[in-house]
From TrEMBL:
Location in or out of the cell: Cell membrane
Protein name in the entry: Probable membrane transporter protein
Membrane-spanning residues: 6-33, 45-62, 68-87, 131-152, 164-182, 194-211, 223-243
Family recorded in the similarity comment: Belongs to the 4-toluene sulfonate uptake permease (TSUP) (TC 2.A.102) family.
Keyword Transmembrane helix: yes
Pfam families: TauE (PF01925)
Upper taxonomic lineage: Bacteria, Pseudomonadati, Pseudomonadota, Gammaproteobacteria, Vibrionales
């Protein structure tokens, strides 16, 4: 019962953030669920939910997407996704439980870095696309590299958000399809998958409506710090387990 409540709260918060900011759903959900369930089962399940709840967002963003900016990213992302799945299905669960928070934490810190070297890397669609690909399929946290890349693009904020939504939709489609092709099964969230998906979908729509009513930069900052806090907690828990 407690795990069910935790999943519902997590999906509600992550869904709202996804609808409001256009990203962050999978990373937030996998950080919490990986503490309870095997990572290799949860990553494909979370990506499937992410794909479904993205549908109402991509319907309104598709025509406002700059596909010329996305094309090089998409190509290398689809190369990176199989690499991430190799890690997901071959590393032991304890290694994956450590890889999830450490990757999310590193990407979150990099996204706020002012390093000249990192800024140059962030402007490379090939590197950002590949990094987004393997982190999507390995730890369900492929948003940060592309968000960083978009930040340094010439697109305005509105175009960036719409392009990100379409990018995540296309890459998640490929990731979910690749998972099925490799395992010949669909991974679902435990116990009440339909209920969880509906809750996440409603939260996404609420977040989208709130963004359309008023865009607050403070909520974007709050989502960033929430990712940091959850990453530190998850990493500390795994390290404690290893050495206790």
């Amino acid at each position: 019962m407690l795990s069910t409540l935790v999943i519902i709260i997590t999906l509600a918060i992550a869904g709202f953030i996804r609808g409001y900011t256009g990203f962050g759903f999978s990373a937030l959900v996998i950080l919490v669920l990986s503490a309870i369930y095997p990572v290799a089962q949860m990553v494909p399940a979370v990506l499937l939910v992410d794909l479904i709840v993205t549908l109402p967002l991509v319907a309104s963003s598709w025509k406002q997407t700059d596909f010329s900016a996305l094309s090089p990213l998409l190509i290398t992302t689809m190369i990176g996704i199989p690499c991430g799945y190799w890690l997901l299905f071959n590393l032991p669960d304890i290694a994956l439980k450590l890889l999830v928070p450490s990757t999310v934490l590193a990407l979150a810190i990099i996204s706020r870095s002012h390093s000249v070297v990192l800024m140059r890397v962030a402007r490379s669609p090939l590197l950002c696309g590949f990094m987004s690909g393997w982190t999507t399929s390995a730890v369900s946290a492929g948003g940060a590299p592309v968000v960083i890349y978009m930040r340094y693009s010439q697109l305005d904020i509105h175009s960036q958000k719409n392009s990100l939504i379409s990018y995540f939709f296309l890459t998640t489609c490929f990731a979910v399809g690749s998972s099925f092709a490799m395992t010949q099964q669909w991974y679902l969230l435990p116990d009440y998958p339909l209920l969880y998906t509906v809750i996440a979908g409603i939260a996404v729509l609420i977040g989208k409506a709130c963004y359309q009513y008023r865009s607050l930069p403070s909520l974007h900052h709050a989502a960033y710090y929430l990712l940091l806090i959850l990453s530190v907690i998850s990493m500390s828990r795994v390290i404690w387990t290893l050495f206790s």
